[in-house]
Amino acid sequence: MIEVQHLTKRYGPFTAVDDVSFRVQKGEILGFLGPNGAGKTTTMRVLTGYMPATDGTATVAGFDVFANPVEAKRRIGYLPETPPLYPDMTVREYLTFVAKLKLPKTVSKSERTERIDSAMRKTHVDDMANRHCSRLSKGYKQRVGLAQALLHDPEVLILDEPTAGLDPKQIIETRDLIRGLAGNHTIVLSTHILPEVSQTCNRVVIINKGRVVAVDTPDNLTRQLKGSATLYVQVDASGADAAAALATVPGVRGVSPFDRDDQDGHLGFEITAETDRDVRRDVARVIVDKGWGLLELRPLRMSLEDIFLQLTTDESAKAEETPDAPEASAAVDATNGEVPNA
Amino acid sequence: MRNVLTIAGKELRSYFTSPVGWVVMGFFALLFGYFFFAHLDFFVRRSMQSAMGGGPVNVNQDMIRGVFSNATIIILFLMPMITMRTYAEEKRSGTIELLLTSPVTDIEIVLGKFFGAVGFFVALMGVTMLDMSLVFIFGNPEVMPVLTAYLGLLLMGGAFISLGLFVSSTTKNQVVAGAATFVVLLLLWVISWVGSSFGPNTAAVLSYLSITEHFDDFSKGVIDTKHALYYLSVTAFGLFLTVKSVDTERWRG
How do the domains of chain B map onto residue ranges? Predict the structure, then answer.
């Protein structure tokens, strides 16, 4: 449905997007992940025909966005980073204007009204239909922007940070809406919120400094980067050399101190095990045999956030990032906690 | 064509849903009314002198022509306020992204904005007709010179708008757009003044480029294709520059 090949965009000497290639299948949700200034918005702007690329090709729904921009744009719904609303129009007036521009000229007036109503219902902005856009809250502005993108029922939806500025309830609703749209629509979305990618996207493109760093499913990315399984174990060893004892467990490749609680004498270790070998039982047995207290034992899973940091930071920076990993994953968990069922 | 009308309609509407349109229209009515009154007053005194043995007077020649010639100056001052927001505002607020990613061509967008501003300009002319109708109610002027003068104003307004549109398309800042448009229009206005210092050929060229040189015939009731062509070609040139400017802007991002 979308095919991008060797896309390059330069602004003078600055290369914003450097030789980016990817494909999106029909009905898929592709997540675009990257730090600020990575080239996400630029790539999206090229895809939507807002700006031409310096080099490379982009095809949307079978139409080259450079050679045949009007046909390609007919099949794209685009929500830019800032929703493009006219402050002095009401929501209904605004959507009517957009509908006149985007819907085929054969669509009758009553059908146009119907489409506008349905887009407003889908995005839950129908209660604000007669409010001026300038008087809408950020969340409503964002959703009117989404309604605008959905209006002509495009085959491809390109959403630049669709959940930015929404409250948790609206985020859930928007994600549900986006997931519901997949299948009939092909969706490319960019985001800073990492759990969003694992929750809504089928595939992730991680982009950094204009280059694609990784393209895969969220699960595969997690697995692939997890060369070996790691465990976190916390013991009350009352001063004994727990690390040495743990290292003797068959299958354990390394033990490194993770954290310690001097007051209680509790020690935390990160245990690296051989891939595809579950060492949890043996680790537990060793600790219990020694008569120590086993306080905690859990797998250390790499969150998408860790992968993101690992892929987008330099080698030297990576070493510094690693100790922060559990905090980062805790942050992700906390976000997950806030948004149940998401 | 439908797209052009849709965009023109939106542009025209935006003049009346924001204070800008009403303010411009109000000031225009005020200034035009003042000049109209001044000329009327002067004409009434001339007529009385004429009745007491002065030369003959003609309401078209001695009053209406002066009013229109002054109207061109008001338009010169107010036009930047009409065109300055066209592109600059959309670029600042990001709504230009909606237009540029909609299935419409750049030319349709430029023409839509152009005709939207022309529509507002026509509304301004409509206001002047209130004053003009008084002359027709209480006097007996010829209709043709008034109509040709309006045609001249419309052609001149179109030329001004296309240049203003171009200037607005080069910046995100409305104030810069307004100021720069004013400078461009004023320079075109006075460009012939220095002509004679550069020799007769340059003087002829500069005089041809001057916007004012072309209006006079219209207010006399003469439609000269040479002058109409001048305004139309300036308009076309301004629109061409705008389309190119929007296109380069895309490349530069």
Answer: 2-247
Residue A73 with chain B: CB contacts under 8 Å: 101-103
Last residue of a domain, one of A224, A248, A276: A224
Interface test with A, best of B3, B101, B172, B247 (most A CBs within 10 A): B101
Q: Are residues A195 and A159 in the same domain?
A: yes
Is residue B93 within 8 Å of A87, Cβ to Cβ? yes
Asked whether residue A334 is domain-assigned, the answer is: no
Number of domains, chain A: 2
- Whether B17 sits inside 8 A of A88 (CB atoms) is yes
* Rounded Cα–Cα distance for residues A49 and B106 (Å): 12
Judging contacts by C-beta atoms under 8 Å, the chain B residues touching residue A89 are 17
Residue A337: inside a domain: no
Distance between CA atoms of residues B141 and B126, nearest Å: 19
DSSP code per residue over chain B: -HHHHHHHHHHHHHHHHSHHHHHHHHHHHHHHHHHHHHHHHHHHHHHHHHHTT-----HIIIIIHHHHHHHHHHHHHHHHHHHTHHHHHHHHHSTHHHHHTSS--HHHHHHHHHHHHHHHHHHHHHHHHHHHHHHHHHS---HHHHHHHHHHHHHHHHHHHHHHHHHHHT-S-HHHHHHHHHHHHHHHHHGGGGGGGG-HHHHHHHHHH-TGGGTHHHHHT---HHHHHHHHHHHHHHHHHHHHHHHHHHHH-
Structure tokens at B108: 């349709």
Q: Are residues A81 and A194 in the same domain?
A: yes
- Residues from chain A that touch B103, judged by Cβ atoms under 8 A, are 70-71, 73-74, 101-102
What confidence category does residue A252 fall into, taking pLDDT thresholds of 50, 70 and 90?
A: confident
Ranked by mean pLDDT, which of A13-17, A114-118, A190-194 comes out on top? Answer: A114-118
pLDDT over 50 at B127, yes or no: yes
pLDDT at B181 exceeding the cut of 80: yes
| CATH code of A50's domain | 3.40.50.300
Whole-complex ipTM: 0.89
Residue A313 has pLDDT above 80, yes or no: no
Domain holding A12, by residue range, is: 2-224
Instruction: State whether A196 and A289 are in the same domain.
Output: no
